[in-house]
Structures are given as structure tokens and as C-alpha cells.
């Protein structure tokens, strides 16, 4: 971990909680954590804290990692906004614009999972990779795809949590996603697990039968990612990812996903084995700091981009 370089501010907007922080590299100077409630009150509290820090620190850039979906095309009318989120009261909220009114420096803006993925490549489990995916399993399911040190964008950003997957035979739960019902997020996010099992994911024992289904569903996505993106690392974090089955993901959920993924791939991807799957699919090297440090990484990239000389 390093504590050098300019002071960067970060905002991590999550579906359940939000974080404001300032840091030099990975050394976090100060942090504010609040529940993600009403949009105006939440953003006001975060920008108010940013203003207090600005009075005592020379903040070089701001990074914002937010739950989505987000408008990320600078030329589009929805740039900087949360768009079709199922979170009540947050659709069409201009997140970037709110903070741009309070901060005049460079601002990096992307999904919270893309930010976490950047942090893992700079300081965590994805160091040295050219292609990796960061997945978060919590209030929702999201994924950031990082290629050559930058998040992948196109028509929009990746929405891996809404993939439609093959179901475990006999499982007829309709799912809870208001858009797609039984997409991955509708089946395997924290609220979906609670709806299916009748108790929060963190309270379920590791031998609860729901984990067999969840592991199988997540393995469907992992196998798709291996076959489509060929990542060198797939990192699973988030409240369920880090604490699935009443324990750590490394001890409970990840081994089951690894084993199921190998069965789904059926030996087709020859570099993968029971041994190499431990490297491919892993927990965040930064633990629960991946999200907040992801906002710092987005701020660093914004600053680096501003300083880069224009090419002819």
C-alpha cells in the first residue's frame, strides 16, 4: 500500500450505503459513511463533507463510483446521471452535475464496480492483468470489465447482473428484478436470496440449500465471462460475495462457484483446472476497501487524463 501522490477525494454511492473519503494513494486520510437514503439528502451530506475537506486539503481530483445504470457518454443528454435504476427516488438523478457544482477540479465518473475493478488492478488482486472482471454481489449484482487499465464502455456500460441464465432444474422462483424477473440479480442478489430463503444471506448457514442454487447461477455467469472475454482474473466482492453462507466467500461460496464453472466448461478451456481456477476466480485483494479505493482510482485517472499532453 502506498501513501504518496496528490490528495484525491472519492465518492462511492452504493445501493445501501455511501462513502466519502480523501486519500493519498491507498492511504485513506478520512472517511464518512452514511446510509443511502433520499437522493437530495444523501448527495447533500456527501458534498457537504467534501467542502469541509477542501477547506483543509488541496484536493487535486474527485472520483465518483456509483450504482447504476449510469449515463457515461459525455455527448448524451443523460451524461452523469443515474438512469433506469430500480432504487426508488434515484432515477434521472444528476450525480456528476451535483458534485461538479461543488468541485472545480477534474472529476472521474463511472460505475462503482468499474472503480473497484480499477483499484484491484492498481493495488489488489488484478495487478499485472490486461483483462479482468470485478463482480459485486450485494443489494444488486454488477460487473466492471477492465481492459488495459480502463473500464469497458460501449452502447452503455456492462450490465452483467441482468444476464439471463439457465436455472437449476426444479427451481421455479420467479425472481425479484422489476425489469427481468429471474435474471441473475433477480435470483442471486442479497434481497433475492432473502426472498427465496426467508432470511438475510448473512444469517444463512453454509449448508443451507439456497447456496447450491446461488453457486450454480453465479457459475453460469462466470462461464459466460470466460468464454466471451477470456479474463485473466474474475474477482467477486460485495456484501454477499464477501460474506456468503455466513462466512467468507473464500471459505464458502467461491469454492462452489469454481467447481460448478469447471463442470459447465467441460474441459473446453484448456488452461483452466481445479488448481488454476483458484487464481482465476478470487476474492478482492483489497477486501471491503475495493469500492472506496475504486473512487480514488477514478479520481487518479481523471487527473492523469487532464495532465496528459494532447496528441496531434
Strands in their spatial order, largest beta sheet? 3-2-1-4-5
Please work out how many helical segments DSSP would assign.
10
Main pleated sheet: 5 strands, mixed
Strand content: 15-25%
CATH topology of the largest domain: Nucleotidyltransferase, domain 5
CATH architecture field of the largest domain? 2-Layer Sandwich
Summed up, the domain count is 2
Folded structure, characterized:
The protein is an alpha/beta fold and 312 residues long. It folds into two domains: 7-111, ATPase, nucleotide binding domain (Nucleotidyltransferase, domain 5); 125-284, ATPase, nucleotide binding domain (Nucleotidyltransferase, domain 5). Helices cover 35% and strands 19% of the residues. The longest helix has 20 residues, at 210-229.
What is the gist of this entry?
The protein is of the alpha/beta class and 312 residues long. 35% of the residues lie in helices and 19% in strands. The chain has two domains: 7-111, ATPase, nucleotide binding domain (Nucleotidyltransferase, domain 5); 125-284, Nucleotidyltransferase, domain 5 (2-Layer Sandwich), CATH 3.30.420.40.
SSE topology:
Elements: E1 7-13, E2 17-24, E3 27-35, H1 39-56, E4 59-66, H2 95-100, E5 107-111, H3 112-123, E6 131-137, E7 141-147, E8 150-151, H4 184-188, H5 190-197, H6 210-229, E9 233-237, H7 238-243, H8 253-265, H9 277-280, E10 281-282, H10 290-307
Parallel strand pairs: 1-4, 4-5, 6-9, 9-10
Antiparallel strand pairs: 1-2, 2-3, 6-7, 7-8
Helix pairs in contact: 3-10, 6-8
Amino acid at each position: 500500500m502506498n501513501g504518496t501522490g496528490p490528495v484525491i477525494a472519492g465518492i462511492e454511492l452504493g445501493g445501501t450505503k455511501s462513502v466519502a473519503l480523501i486519500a493519498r494513494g491507498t492511504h485513506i486520510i478520512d472517511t464518512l459513511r452514511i446510509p443511502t437514503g433520499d437522493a437530495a439528502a444523501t448527495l447533500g451530506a456527501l458534498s457537504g463533507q467534501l467542502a469541509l475537506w477542501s477547506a483543509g486539503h488541496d484536493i487535486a481530483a474527485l472520483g465518483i463510483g456509483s450504482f447504476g445504470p449510469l449515463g457515461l457518454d459525455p455527448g448524451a443528454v443523460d451524461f452523469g446521471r443515474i438512469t433506469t435504476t430500480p432504487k426508488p427516488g434515484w432515477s434521472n438523478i444528476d450525480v456528476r452535475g451535483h458534485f461538479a457544482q461543488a468541485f472545480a477540479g477534474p472529476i472521474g465518473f463511472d460505475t462503482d464496480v468499474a472503480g473497484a475493478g480499477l483499484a484491484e488492478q492498481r493495488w489488489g488482486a488484478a495487478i499485472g492483468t490486461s483483462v479482468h472482471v470485478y463482480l459485486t454481489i450485494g443489494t444488486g449484482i454488477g460487473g466492471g470489465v477492465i481492459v488495459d487499465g480502463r473500464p469497458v464502455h460501449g452502447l452503455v456500460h456492462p450490465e452483467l447482473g441482468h444476464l439471463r441464465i439457465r436455472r437449476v432444474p426444479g427451481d421455479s422462483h420467479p425472481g425479484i428484478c422489476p425489469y427481468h424477473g429471474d435474471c441473475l440479480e433477480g435470483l442471486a442478489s442479497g434481497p433475492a436470496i432473502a426472498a427465496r430463503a426467508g432470511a438475510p444471506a448473512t444469517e444463512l448457514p453454509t449448508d443451507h440449500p439456497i447456496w447450491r442454487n446461488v453457486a450454480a447461477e453465479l457459475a453460469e455467469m462466470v462461464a459466460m465471462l470466460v468464454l466471451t472475454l477470456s479474463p485473466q482474473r474474475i474477482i467477486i466482492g460485495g456484501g454477499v460475495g464477501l460474506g456468503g453462507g455466513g462466512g467468507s466467500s473464500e471459505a464458502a461460496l467461491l469454492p462452489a462457484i469454481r467447481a460448478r464453472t469447471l463442470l459447465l466448461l467441460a474441459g473446453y478451456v484448456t488452461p483452466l483446472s481445479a488448481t488454476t481456477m483458484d487464481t482465476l476466480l478470487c476474492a478482492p485483494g483489497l477486501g471491503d476497501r475495493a469500492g472506496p479505493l475504486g473512487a480514488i482510482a477514478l479520481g487518479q485517472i481523471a487527473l492523469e487524463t487532464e495532465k496528459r499532453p494532447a496528441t496531434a
